[in-house]
């Protein structure tokens, strides 16, 4: 059962096409990585999944409903690339506010804060935190709703390696408990941590496979090299 | 379009906005003290100017009008900047992916800043009538009520105006655009019946004119008059209209 199905998605920003007939599916209960260089259209695709992106054509179906449907609003969590939390509130106040919007209480808010490792900073204003901590506060505000689908735009940017590993462990624990995760990254070394990989470049989907399949197809163990050989193959095909 | 209003989500939003305000001590102090201080300046301005026999005291007339103008201006500014921040920081996009409806968000803002305006009005009216001897014939509770309705109008117009600003520089410049014409034509500088016909027509469609007329009614009559309630109703109606328009500017899907 797929949690998300994208068919022939076309998005233009002004006159400029950002996504060209992208089609992909995201299996339930797995961590799907959306990888590609900066400017490849990753954020646009994620915004389309949560229903925040105006699309030109194509369909996006999420958990059986059109993306952005009212029925999905308590089931989909979204963390934007820039931390979208209130800088003039404490971590706890932010988490409790989003908890209230999802119909949860203070206990759920505190649990979400602990999950992202911010328990000791819960009483601090978000504006006084480091960039990495702000990102985690933003993540806590999505976790608090215990969504069925969690859409995370570059959640590990600016985090030290230890925290990055902890977060990936957390993502897999969530997936094991049944949550579907879509995580974007421009760092290829995170690709290997995903159950499934979507590779995006210049608004086109280069590959939709598992890391193992991708390695086998390109004949290399290094996913960065695999990505490069896919890019070259596509360019030769279009040249 | 979601038009369902949830009291629970509206009050969650209002609580959040008030908590943000509470962390900003300087803003709270300015909200509570500045109108009283400015009114004091006006009091001193006319303190030694003799009043012509049979004429109402100038400070009574101007001071009473300003009790309606201050909350309108202050809440317009505070709200337009607050909403602009929601739009530019990404929190608005995020909020609109949650079960919160657009009207919950706007009413939450209205409720929070309406409460702040009530506190401001109680302080300003108390200081005005005790320290500055402002004479009001009607009940002071009505003055506070009109001040709060004016503040709500400022909040609603501020929420709407934030849609037309891309930066805080632009947002603050919308304040004179929205506020000054209404102030010039509200009847304080020149009585409305002495305005040129077309200016009177413009004044007739500007909500602040009705707020000032309502205050003048309270200033002159010992009890609430029908005219006053009609004027207050017009201001409240304009507030709801502006909120509706502001809701239409909040788009879930953007390019």
Can you describe what's shown?
The complex is a heterodimer of chains A (239) and B (255). Chain A starts with a strand and ends with a helix. The longest helix of chain A has 16 residues, at 161-176. In chain A, helix 2 runs parallel beside helix 4, helix 3 (106-115) packs across helix 4 and helix 6 crosses helix 7 (223-238). In chain A, strand 4 (57-62) and strand 5 form a beta hairpin. Chain A is 35% helix and 27% strand. Chain A is an alpha/beta fold. In chain A, the strands form two sheets. A six-stranded mixed beta sheet of chain A has the order 6-7-8-3-9-10, sandwiched between helices. In chain A, strands 2-1-4-5 form a four-stranded antiparallel beta sheet, covered by helices on one side. Chain B is mostly helical and 255 residues long. Chain B has one domain (9-45, 58-249). Helix content of chain B is 75%, strand content 0%. In chain B, helix 6 runs antiparallel to helix 9 and helix 6 packs parallel to helix 10 (226-249). Chain B is globular and about 65 Å long. The two termini of chain B are 18 Å apart. Classes of the chains: A alpha/beta (239), B mainly alpha (255). Chain A binds chain B through residues 12-14, 50-55, 68, 70, 73-74, 76, 78, 80, 82-89, 93, 97-98, 100-103, 125, 141, 145, and chain B through 2, 8-9, 12, 15-16, 19-20, 23-24, 89-91, 93-100, 252-255.
Encode the helix/strand succession of chain A as letters: EEEHEEEHHHEHEEEHH
Would you report the number of β strands of chain B? 0
Mean pLDDT of chain B: 92
Unreliable parts of chain A? none
Number of helices of chain B: 10
Oligomeric state of the chains present here: heterodimer
Mean pLDDT of chain A: 91
How much of the sequence of chain B is in beta strands? Answer: under 5%
By secondary-structure content and strand pairing, the structural class of chain A works out as alpha/beta
Structural class of chain B: mainly alpha
Number of strands of chain A: 10
Topology pattern of chain B, helix = H, strand = E: HHHHHHHHHH
The most extensive interface, with participating residues per chain, is: A-B, 34 and 25 residues
């Amino acid at each position: 059962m797929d949690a998300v199905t994208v068919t022939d998605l076309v998005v233009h920003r002004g006159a400029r096409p950002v996504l060209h007939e992208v089609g992909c599916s995201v299996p339930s209960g797995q961590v799907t990585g959306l990888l590609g260089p900066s400017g490849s259209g990753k954020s646009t695709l994620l915004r389309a999944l949560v229903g925040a992106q105006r699309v030109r054509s194509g369909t996006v179906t999420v958990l059986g409903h059109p993306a952005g449907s009212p029925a999905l609003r308590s089931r989909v969590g979204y963390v934007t690339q820039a931390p979208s939390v209130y800088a003039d509130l404490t971590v706890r106040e932010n988490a409790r506010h989003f908890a209230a919007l999802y119909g949860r209480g203070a206990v759920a808010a505190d649990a979400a804060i602990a999950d992202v490792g911010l328990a000791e900073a819960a009483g601090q204003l978000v504006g006084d935190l480091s960039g990495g901590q702000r990102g985690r506060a933003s993540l806590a505000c999505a976790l608090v709703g215990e969504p069925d689908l969690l859409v995370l735009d570059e959640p590990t940017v600016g985090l030290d390696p230890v925290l990055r590993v902890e977060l990936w462990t957390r993502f897999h624990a969530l997936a094991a408990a049944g949550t579907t995760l879509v995580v974007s990254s421009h760092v290829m070394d995170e690709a290997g941590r995903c159950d499934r990989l979507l590779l995006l470049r210049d608004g086109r989907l280069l590959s939709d496979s598992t890391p193992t399949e991708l390695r086998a197809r390109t004949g290399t163990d290094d996913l960065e090299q695999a990505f490069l050989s896919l890019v070259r193959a596509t360019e030769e095909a279009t040249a | 379009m979601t038009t369902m209003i949830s009291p629970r989500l509206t009050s969650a939003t209002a609580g959040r906005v008030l908590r943000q305000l509470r962390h900003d001590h300087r803003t709270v102090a300015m909200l509570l003290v500045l109108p009283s201080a400015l009114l004091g300046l006006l009091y001193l301005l006319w303190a030694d100017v003799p009043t012509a026999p049979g004429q109402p005291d100038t400070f009574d007339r101007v001071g009473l009008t300003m009790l309606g103008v201050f909350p309108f201006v202050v809440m317009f500014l505070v709200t337009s900047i607050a909403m602009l921040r929601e739009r530019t920081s990404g929190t608005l996009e995020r909020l609109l992916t949650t079960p919160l409806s657009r009207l919950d968000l706007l009413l939450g803002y209205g409720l929070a800043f309406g409460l702040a305006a009530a506190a401001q009005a109680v302080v300003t009216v108390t200081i005005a009538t005790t320290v500055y001897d402002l004479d009001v014939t009607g009940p002071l509770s009505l003055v506070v009520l009109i001040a709060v309705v004016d503040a709500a109008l400022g909040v609603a117009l501020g929420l709407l105006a934030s849609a037309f600003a891309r930066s805080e520089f632009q947002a603050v410049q919308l304040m004179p655009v929205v506020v000054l014409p209404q102030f010039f034509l509200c009847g304080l500088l020149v009585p409305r019946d002495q305005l040129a016909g077309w200016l009177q027509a413009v004044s007739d469609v500007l909500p602040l004119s009705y707020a000032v007329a309502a205050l003048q009614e309270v200033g002159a009559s010992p009890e609430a008059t029908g005219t006053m309630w009609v004027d207050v109703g017009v201001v409240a109606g304009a507030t709801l209209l502006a909120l509706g328009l502001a809701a239409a500017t909040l788009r879930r899907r953007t390019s």
